[in-house]
Amino acid sequence: MLHIFNTLTRRKETFKPIEPGKVKLYVCGMTVYDFCHIGHARVMVVFDMVQRWLRASGMEVTYVRNITDIDDKIIKRAVENKETIKALTDRFILAMHEDADALGIERPTHEPRATEYVPQMQNIITRLIDKNYAYQVEQGDVNYAVRNFKNYGQLSGKTLDDLIAGERVAVTGGKQDPLDFVLWKTAKADEPADTKWESPWGLGRPGWHIECSAMSCELLGKHFDIHGGGADLQFPHHENEIAQSEAAFSDETGKPFVNTWMHNGFVRVNEEKMSKSLGNFFTIREVLKVFDPEVVRFFILKAHYRSPLNYSDTHLEEAKQGLTRLYNALSSVEDIPTYSKPSAWRTRFAEVMNDDFNTSEAIAILFELAGEINKAEGPEKLEERRDLARELKQLAKLLGLLERPAQEFLQASGGSQVADNDTAVIEAAIQARADAKQGKDFAKADQIRQDLLTQGIVLEDKPGGVTLWRRA
Question: Does residue 465 carry a pLDDT above 90?
């Protein structure tokens, strides 16, 4: 039985899909005006892991991760660049896909763009106005009337007065209440034409919160299983999604908007909150210039998804060494079987994954397996070693790990001083060392090993006179 920590109820609950055997999952995606950062990487990797495990558990998953392609920051950046909104967003969507592909992220079932769902947004806003949950101010904006929704604050666990005191928001722009939020923004005269849509309330564009309600309800229905995102979205974004979606549709469905809310923890950098203002802001592609993408994925999955994740070069190096240990164990086994059969390892792995997707414990099991492979030495234990290697590969695959040939990972550059295209040079040095050993010139052989090591190349002598190499 799968148990998931539900942010809404603040406890682990047995997960029961609305429709047996089928799961509808929505995750808030990226606002595409810049390159994705390491915080985005965590969201993508975490919910990629979630959907992989749901599918491995025999469920049919409809996974929606949206793209916000209209927003104040997008408009500002496009104007600065003197380009159209679509040119800007198309470019960064392509970059996002490149980053996601590198990290082994499987594409979601649907990846809707907000600009494709403006009619659905307008329909929800009209319903909210008709039901007295929204109002238009003199300046033209349409706002949501927070105090008219009695359950506001249920996700954040705060009362309205607590939220107002915490936000310290003044009543401006014709708002009836400082917590009221915009559903439709009236167009400004100096804004580009491609940021404006006709509506019953005049030219304008949608507010951010209404976008996700429209896309999720259109693609998954007005009542679905799981809604996910980063912890920073819990309030106000997800709180506002609940308010507007349930106000619009709960009388029709008789159900809550979403059954289970999942939030991954924050990313910190050297124990400080990651932010551009602190100068500790890293894009995915900056990190991938130094570290192999699988190392980054492994680093993210080593921590439980709800825990804070502290990013540093030291922690990435530790992740690299850990992943190298796993691949090293596999490199010692040839002809790993691909068939599967029930095993105690698989049972244990399923138990920890079904306990709120505990990837930290799941990876600990992978290390146990690697240790058992390393212990099973000698030709008489060949079959045992192969069976263990099969378990290691197949369980790791459920997390999107260890899917490459071992030597391919071990020989990937990953910051080594020797580039990928110098493989022939390395192989020639290994042959020269073998020749020196055969000629009993052990000093020369040792010097060749040491010279390679200073360049970040580690040699490992295997039985039968075979020498394998990997990057440090």
Answer: no
Read off the pLDDT of residues 11-69 as tens digits, 9 standing for 90 and up: 999 999 999 999 999 999 999 999 999 999 999 999 999 999 999 999 999 999 999 99
Domain ranges of the chain: 3-264, 269-410, 420-471
pLDDT in tens, 128-145: 999 999 999 999 999 999
CATH number for the domain running over 269-410: 1.20.120.640
3-264 and 269-410 share one CATH topology?
Answer: no
Q: Is 3-264 assigned to CATH 3.30.750.24?
A: no
Average pLDDT score over the chain? 92
Q: Supply the pLDDT for residue 105.
A: 98
3-state secondary structure the chain: CCEEEECCCCEEEECCCCECCEEEEEECCCECCCCCEHHHHHHHHHHHHHHHHHHHCCCEEEEEECEECCCHHHHHHHHHHCCCHHHHHHHHHHHHHHHHHHCCCCCCCECCEHHHHHHHHHHHHHHHHHCCCEEECCCCCEEECHHHCCCCCCCCCCCHHHHHHHHCCCCCCCCCCCCCEEEEEECCCCCCHHHCECCCCCCEEECHHHHHHHHHHHHHCCCEEEEEEEHHHHHHHHHHHHHHHHHHHHHHHCCCCEEEEEEECCEEECCEECCCCCCCCCEHHHHHCCCCHHHHHHHHHHCCCCCCEEECHHHHHHHHHHHHHHHHHHHCCCCCCCCCCCCHHHHHHHHHHCECCCHHHHHHHHHHHHHHHHHCCCHHHHHHHHHHHHHHHHHHHCCCCCCCCHHHHHCCCCCCCCCHHHHHHHHHHHHHHHHHHHCCCHHHHHHHHHHHHHCCEEEEEEHHHEEEEEEC
